[in-house]
Every structure is written in structure tokens, then in C-alpha cells.
Amino acid sequence: MQQADATEKVIIGVDPGTQIMGYGVISVKGQQITLVQYGVIHLSKYTTHELKLKKIFERISQLITDYLPDEMAIEDPFYGKNPQSMLKLGRAQGVAMAAALSRDIPIVEYSPKKVKQSVTGSGSASKEQVAYMLEKILNMELSKEFMDATDGIAIAICHHYHANSPASSSTSSSKKSKKGGWGAFVSENPERVK
């Protein structure tokens, strides 16, 4: 029983956005996944991009304080046709990552296709198909009001599946450098961070 407690892990999944940002917090004990919290951060009411970034940082920081996640999983911005939108989305992702990095929380990024494939088996699944599979995985009904939050939950579950795969556990030393991303960069280059 104590061994199961030792393997407990809290993961926050974040789906970055500039209008709506979805998040999901899961707890994993052994292979049992429990949904702790999920929701959305509505950003469209803020008038400037800078104010939106500030709110993202504050809200993600508050979620970290409230739920003390061990790891953050975040969706990679996908490439779109509008470079300005991509730039803004990348900034939103960066601010969410900065909130985790300020608390020394490791971050792993996943592509939207990888997240969908991990949860549904299909990299081209719809938002509704992802939500349906999450309800089956979690054995609970999810509020349709927070449909954007399902992506955050899916990202956290995707991370759990991949962090516990035989391939990742057999190379635990390379996992850190491979998955470290910004966290690894910061720890290896403290003089470049101000």
C-alpha cells in the first residue's frame, strides 16, 4: 500500500490559447487516473495581448499553488497559416511554461496529433471523440460547458501514458535530457536566465 502512495503523481495538462486556455489536473496512483480539476481560462474579455499573458501567468501560477503538480504537459502550438496568430499562441504557451518553470516543475510538450492518438487511437479525432474517450477512461461524465478543458485533460493523460511506457522507463537517464526542454535548458544555463 505504501508503494502505491510513493508512485502518486499529479500532472497538469495545459492547452494554450489566446481566447480560451483549457487545463486539466489529474492524479495518478499506480495506473489509476483520477480527475482532480479541470476548467478554462477565458481571455477574450481582456483588451490587450499583454494583459492576456499576465492573466495566463497568474492563473497557471494559482493552479500550481492549489494543486502542486509534479509535472506539466503542454500542447505544442500547431502550425497555421497566420504567422501573427502563431506568434501569439507561442507567447501564451511560453507564459504558461514560465509559470511552471518558476516553480521548478518539469515540462513536456506534445503535438495535438500525439495527444489525440494517445487518448482515442486516432490522430485526427474530433474534440467530441476525445471528450467521449476521456469519459470512458475517467469513468465519469464531463461538463459540456468546459469542452475546451477536455484538451487539457487529454494532454495530462497523454503524458501519463508516455511517461510510463516501457520505452521511457528503460531510458530514465535519457528521458530527462530528451523531455527536459526548457527546464533542462534553464538548469544547464543558469547564467542566461535573469
From TrEMBL:
<dbReference type="InterPro" id="IPR036397">
    <property type="entry name" value="RNaseH_sf"/>
</dbReference>
<keyword id="KW-0479">Metal-binding</keyword>
<dbReference type="GO" id="GO:0003677">
    <property type="term" value="F:DNA binding"/>
</dbReference>
<keyword id="KW-0540">Nuclease</keyword>
<keyword id="KW-0255">Endonuclease</keyword>
<keyword id="KW-0227">DNA damage</keyword>
<comment type="function">
    <text>The RuvA-RuvB-RuvC complex processes Holliday junction (HJ) DNA during genetic recombination and DNA repair. Endonuclease that resolves HJ intermediates. Cleaves cruciform DNA by making single-stranded nicks across the HJ at symmetrical positions within the homologous arms, yielding a 5'-phosphate and a 3'-hydroxyl group; requires a central core of homology in the junction. The consensus cleavage sequence is 5'-(A/T)TT(C/G)-3'. Cleavage occurs on the 3'-side of the TT dinucleotide at the point of strand exchange.</text>
</comment>
<feature type="binding site">
    <location>
        <position position="148"/>
    </location>
    <ligand>
        <name>Mg(2+) 1</name>
    </ligand>
</feature>
<dbReference type="InterPro" id="IPR020563">
    <property type="entry name" value="X-over_junc_endoDNase_Mg_BS"/>
</dbReference>
<dbReference type="Pfam" id="PF02075">
    <property type="entry name" value="RuvC"/>
</dbReference>
<keyword id="KW-0963">Cytoplasm</keyword>
<dbReference type="GO" id="GO:0048476">
    <property type="term" value="C:Holliday junction resolvase complex"/>
</dbReference>
<feature type="region of interest" description="Disordered">
    <location>
        <begin position="165"/>
        <end position="194"/>
    </location>
</feature>
<feature type="active site">
    <location>
        <position position="75"/>
    </location>
</feature>
<keyword id="KW-0460">Magnesium</keyword>
<keyword id="KW-0378">Hydrolase</keyword>
<dbReference type="GO" id="GO:0006281">
    <property type="term" value="P:DNA repair"/>
</dbReference>
<comment type="similarity">
    <text>Belongs to the RuvC family.</text>
</comment>
<feature type="active site">
    <location>
        <position position="15"/>
    </location>
</feature>
<dbReference type="GO" id="GO:0000287">
    <property type="term" value="F:magnesium ion binding"/>
</dbReference>
<keyword id="KW-0238">DNA-binding</keyword>
<feature type="binding site">
    <location>
        <position position="75"/>
    </location>
    <ligand>
        <name>Mg(2+) 2</name>
    </ligand>
</feature>
<feature type="binding site">
    <location>
        <position position="15"/>
    </location>
    <ligand>
        <name>Mg(2+) 1</name>
    </ligand>
</feature>
<comment type="subunit">
    <text>Homodimer which binds Holliday junction (HJ) DNA. The HJ becomes 2-fold symmetrical on binding to RuvC with unstacked arms; it has a different conformation from HJ DNA in complex with RuvA. In the full resolvosome a probable DNA-RuvA(4)-RuvB(12)-RuvC(2) complex forms which resolves the HJ.</text>
</comment>
<dbReference type="GO" id="GO:0008821">
    <property type="term" value="F:crossover junction DNA endonuclease activity"/>
</dbReference>
<dbReference type="GO" id="GO:0006310">
    <property type="term" value="P:DNA recombination"/>
</dbReference>
<dbReference type="InterPro" id="IPR002176">
    <property type="entry name" value="X-over_junc_endoDNase_RuvC"/>
</dbReference>
<keyword id="KW-0234">DNA repair</keyword>
<feature type="active site">
    <location>
        <position position="148"/>
    </location>
</feature>
<protein>
    <recommendedName>
        <fullName>Crossover junction endodeoxyribonuclease RuvC</fullName>
        <ecNumber>3.1.21.10</ecNumber>
    </recommendedName>
</protein>
<dbReference type="GO" id="GO:0005737">
    <property type="term" value="C:cytoplasm"/>
</dbReference>
<keyword id="KW-0233">DNA recombination</keyword>
<dbReference type="InterPro" id="IPR012337">
    <property type="entry name" value="RNaseH-like_sf"/>
</dbReference>
